[in-house]
Amino acid sequence: NSGYDLKQLFIGSEGTLGIITGVEVKLFPKPARTETAYLGLASFEAAIQLFNRARRDCSDLISAFEIIGSECI
Questions:
Q1: Domain boundaries in the chain?
Q2: Can you give the pTM of this predicted structure?
């Protein structure tokens, strides 16, 4: 009986047969307040420019930035 080569089985499964034995999670404090803004811009390029400026000026305050094209609305 040759059985399974467990090392090769684990490697071949790309780790999907593994067991998680520990987890490390980085948590951030809850902000004192939140704000939401909905903006209509003339083009995708204008939205990218706004994102770059917001990231430059307020990077630690922004938790999300979503661009939705007019074809999706």
A1: 6-72
A2: 0.54
